[in-house]
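User: Can you fold this complex?
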Amino acid sequence: MSETVPGDDSVGDGTSPDDGDGSGGFMGWVQKSDLRIVGVTLASMYVLFTVLVLLEQGLGFDSVNSVVGAWRTLTFLFAAYAVLALALNLHWGYTGMFNIGVAGFMAVGVYTMALLSGTSDPISAGQGYGWGLPLWFGVIMGTVVAGLTGLIAAVPALRLRADYLAIVTLGLSEIIRLLAQSRDVSTWTDETFGFATGGGRGFFLPDRPTEAIWGTDAGQSFVELFTVEIGGDEVTLVRESIIADFSWSLVMIVFLAGIYWLLRRIGYSPFGRVLKAIREDELVAQSLGKDTRWFKIKVFMLGCALMGLGGILWQGSQGTVTPDSFRPIVTFYVFIALIIGGSGSNTGSVVGAILFVGLLFEAPRRVGSIIEAWMNLSSAPNTFHDALGSLASLDVGGFVAYFIDNLGPLQFVILGLVLVVIVQRRPEGMLGHRTEVAAAIDLERGEIDE
Amino acid sequence: MALPQFFSSGTPLNAAKKGRERVIEIIVVATVVLIGIDLIAKLAGRQFSLGVGPTLGGDLALASLAGNVWTGILVGLIFGLAGIGLSMTYSILNFANFSHGDLLTTGAFTGWGVALLIAGWGVGDAGYLLFARSGSGPGPSTIGASIVASPVAIVAGVIVAAVMTVVVALLIDRLVYRPMRDRGGIPLLIASIGVALALRSLIQFMYGSRTRGITATQDVRREVLGFSINLHQVTLFVVALVLMVTMHLLLQETKLGKAMRAMADNKDLALVTGIPTERVVRATWILGAGLAGIAGFLFVLERGAMDYNLGWFLLLFIFAAVILGGIGSIYGAIAGGLVIGLVHEVSLIWVSSDFNAVAAFVIMILVLLYRPEGIFSGVTTA
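Assistant: Here's the predicted assembly.
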């Protein structure tokens, strides 16, 4: 590992040595600090989406609202995926535990929060309702209960082979989803505990705490700052709903920063060094007298708790939730984000989340609408064989229109192919090559001195 | 985790492990006995209490139980048939193939496209039929794809399902798995998740997202010797059974089967013995994917409807079957499939339909945790 440079994860440390890849120039400057890598990736996504929105809508005062709206969506999803990718990185990247039940642990967090803090009078019959306790209590308990679920899963499961653990965690997440889906469970909790999970009808969730700000006078005067007079007309540049959403995304960013800091501390602590040792060779770690089982259980719990928290911040903040939000596909999204960034690196997890959300998740739809807006396509054929028929009669427009109309499945095809290509060609991801050394002192330098 | 091997068998560590295994065994046996007593009491129409816990017994018609068992066997045969392929790729290529379920979907859509085209020739637009009723056109009963009205279409559908699934699987192997042969189980597993996602969405893209009715049911239910028999279910039963026996003969009697068993046992040894491993891998895909495609086709024959998620929903059950029977054993996969199928259907006597899938997954997890070698341990004959 000649590229290994200790301390290259240091934020804002401009004096740390170059890591070999970036030899001077702008890229070299960027690669010297992790904050710069994240910042530049983030900024380029915002610029990209500004361009995409403007291409779609043209220059105008209305476009300001759309651009900020796109930024809001991006920021929200960046933060959500980054939190989950960091949690998964703790399992997979640091300790080598192959957990593909992320969605299940998210569901545990969100449902615990909803049952404790959700409204106590359901809006429609059969819907879930909770105890109406304070929100902060629900969030903390949601995180804790997700962690405890992790404990229950970890105690027997962590001695399994990696591929067996994968099947067990996937099965567990499906069991959790099926239980949340079940009408009988909802009726039973209703009669026994005085709250209901709602089954397939789901739950109305508590409002985001940031919503309260915008009802106040100060909030309203801030919103009015975005309404300006241009040529005698009152123009609302950014609507209140978008500002309100954005404020929540900023709260998520704060959580993200906190979690990143926490995981960095753990990664460089003696505890973290044992984790990396387990990932490299568990037998060696055992031979050195480390009780690897305990280490793995603790890490599994912490990661699951963070997945629960990530679920609450993301799915738990959208007004309603149904069990469908926790299909296994969500786990695979997080996995793709992590693998793009490079498992084993916290910064890589964040960068991977940004690239995944920007390039793979949001961009295809934007590009589709641009093509639709510019090409003035004929109405799309309803089926693939009609589309083939229009291609046979040399009507390329109809064929393209079918693609645009069916971007949803097409996007999944691309996601699947990207996953395959990354695993084949660059399994270490964007930043995975910067292996974090487990030793406290730089062993590499000693070799060079000799 | 090779540490315990250093100790002799008499250490407290092993004694504790043995003790725990005995406790689990006792619990399992007790549960089975209790369920058996309850079932007999239910059939007898008696109800009694053991003093503690819920009352046992109740009322259950024998015909209703027989119905559950029959459906359980049918579903179990599908799980088993699909499980053979999953088990073979798991033991010979050494990875858990998460795209196996979508091979069933591939078989179902391609096979039924051709079957509908033949059955409904002249009734509807050829494109509409070939893409398995995507768009608007005549309904399933007008097309008349059933074993009674158009047996030729069904036979052709089975063959096309097998052939197309094999073609797709070989293509995927060439492009995705072959360049990664020596990369270990986990990278291959991750790649197979990508393949699953891409394949399923490609089917959705080409065939549409709608859940569609496929088979015609007129005259399919017949009275034979006083029993009401569904000919589609009988077809499934017969075809599955014939294929399983063929697989048994193929693996036990031919040189190819011997080579496959050798490779599953020890890859390096097989290679130095002169077994053409790549050719064996290709044969594995052909057999496994062919069976998966037919399983998908037959599943739709019994259900009468399909959508692009069909195989993905079956995947965990197929895994459950393979794990239960012990990974690497095709007899285990068949037996495991039957057990999981029976659990899935017969458990409906005790639990609501919200929980029967949960029951199957719980069994899978418990087997993985406490008996990862499967319930018929030790028999790994390919």
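Strands of chain B lie at 47-48, 56-57, 212-213, 221-224, 227-230, 305-306. The CA atoms of residues 92 and 266 of chain B lie 9 Å apart.
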